[in-house]
Amino acid sequence: MAFAAFSTAEAPTEQAPRKKSRIALFLLLPGIAYLVLFFLTPLVSLLLTSLQAPLEFGDIGQYQYAFNWQNYVDVMTTYWPHIVRSFGYALAATVFALLFSYPLAYFIGVKARRWPLLQSLMLVLVIAPFFISFLLRTLAWKQILSDESFVITSLKALSLLGPDAHFTGTPFAVIFGLTYNFIPFMTLPLYTTLERLDLRYLEAGSDLYANPFTVFRKVTLPLSMPGIVAGTLLTFIPAAGDYVNASRDFLGGPDTQMMGNVIEANFLVLLNYPAAAALSIILMAAILVLVGIYVKRSGTEDLL
Amino acid sequence: MSGEVQAAAVLGGFSESQQTEPRRGPERGRRFGLGSWLLPVYAVIAFVFLMIPIAYTFVFSFNDSVKSNIAWRGFTFDKWLNVCNVEGGAVCQAFANSVVIGLVATVIATTLGTMIAIALVRYRFRARSVISLLLFLPMATPEVVLGAGLAAQFLAVGVPKDMTTIILAHTMFCISFVVVTVKARVASLDPALEEAGRDLYGSPAQVFWRVTFPLLLPGIVAAALLSFALSFDDFIITNFNSGSVSTFPKYVYISASRGIPAEANVIASAVFLFAIVLVIGAQVSRAARAKRLAKLG
């Protein structure tokens, strides 16, 4: 489903005579050339940049090509807390988004099946946050949950929060922001899978005297695996690379900076391009490895 | 990926998965539910939660604020009526830049992506799996890596960052999403319709523009809307490749430390209302059409 869109096993609808291959080439070439030029080559540039060494007697931001593997060692030793945080926060946000989205997607996809218009309107509500600027909705949360806000002051008045407690600037706030911002990416693929769930399987389960919980665990959950895998990937990948939520001007604080924040700072402020590039390569490699393991373990390789 | 495709489907007012008839087996759903009222109540709470920041942004677009827009200072229509009057129109300039970038990137990405989608479904060729991987990878790469990569390349080649580099970057990440969205539509196209066109002596160009293209149009429109939405709201990749050019998200990011003017809320709210009316309108008209068709059948 998710990645099946690119499945290679799919049979072309027509036999292709030789003459047609020229049309295929004409159709493919511009787009593929574009991706090679502006996606693949930049990755190579990034790899080369990550190995650069400072130019001797050079200014800040001046580097030359080298094989300076030391860059990787340096960023790992300097930024290991950011690396750990990125993946920890992303994992927590993914779990929360899944817990939030599953019942919602189940309601839209299964319970509301008999009312297609209601179903589509609820889907519009799910993606509605996409229509308001990502940064503004994050800032809105910052203001709603700031120390002087109605929410926090009331919680303090009710002694549910200590008098010195903060929400913004803490890891909880960053995880909260990541969760909120990526919920639609989780809900939509879950919905797509649950919408196609054949209820007769559930009936069969209960006819065989399984209680509702067992039916859910043994039937519904395994059948919704494709949606869960797609949704967790769609949430985890952007969450691990995000730096808006963790930024100090948004929901984060000095102790919540993630890899994205240090990549941004090194690239755009400190002009330490090799460090930013090395961190980017580490982020990408780690994500590819994690995704590979995850997809293999969850037995959904055919999704790729 | 499927989330985005689903979003595109909703945006385009048609949804692949909803074209299947709802199954109407013996309705014994209550027996496996978590209780018949629990889920609807949860859904309502969940939707309220999702709407909170949207409502906040909207309400604060009417705030009679001076400079920073944090404390409520009273209701006014001023900010809606004089959006461009703040900071010499910086918000409006950023908004206009975002629209231009979004439009150009959408046109290029939709054209290139549609061509690839047609080729992938209709033609057999070697290197198919390599091409599929090349299309999948940009969607699986974190934006910060895409942004830093392009910026490193522009730096290495010595290209100054301006509107063009932003457009080049946006087109790149939109292409894959266009391919996935349009591909679903090409795959569901009945080849017999094109055959009929050829049987009636239509030239290949005529068959394409009179038969294939109109049938693909809903998919292409959905892909274009998705591209525009992705481009318009992109901040991370833009931040690395924009130099001194401002876009709407970049404007918000930069002014976040010193306070966002209410005019930014006005623009975001207006965009939101426009998009939501467009999408709900498309959904309702689709439902009405489905009802009419059901009556005919």
Automatic annotation (TrEMBL), chain A:
Main location (coarse class): membrane
SUPFAM superfamilies: MetI-like (SSF161098)
Organism from which the protein derives: Agromyces salentinus
Membrane topology: Multi-pass membrane protein
Bilayer-spanning residue ranges: 23-48, 87-109, 121-140, 172-191, 219-241, 275-295
Keywords: Cell membrane, Membrane, Transmembrane, Transmembrane helix, Transport
UniProt xrefs under PANTHER family: INNER MEMBRANE ABC TRANSPORTER PERMEASE PROTEIN YDCU-RELATED (PTHR42929:SF1), INNER MEMBRANE ABC TRANSPORTER PERMEASE PROTEIN YDCU-RELATED-RELATED (PTHR42929)
Signal peptide from the UniProt entry: none
Subcellular location: Cell membrane
Family the entry assigns: Belongs to the binding-protein-dependent transport system permease family. CysTW subfamily.
InterPro entries registered for this protein in UniProt: MetI-like, MetI-like_sf
Domain annotation ABC transmembrane type-1: ranges: 83-294
Protein name: ABC transporter permease subunit
Keyword field contains Coiled coil: no
Automatic annotation (TrEMBL), chain B:
Membrane protein topology class: Multi-pass membrane protein
Cellular location(s): Cell membrane
Transmembrane feature ranges: 37-59, 99-121, 133-155, 167-186, 207-232, 266-285
Domain ABC transmembrane type-1: 95-284
Primary location: membrane
The entry's keywords: Cell membrane, Membrane, Transmembrane, Transmembrane helix, Transport
Recorded superkingdom: Bacteria
Family membership: Belongs to the binding-protein-dependent transport system permease family. CysTW subfamily.
Protein name: ABC transporter permease
Protein species of origin: Agromyces salentinus
Lineage, highest ranks first: Bacteria, Bacillati, Actinomycetota, Actinomycetes, Micrococcales
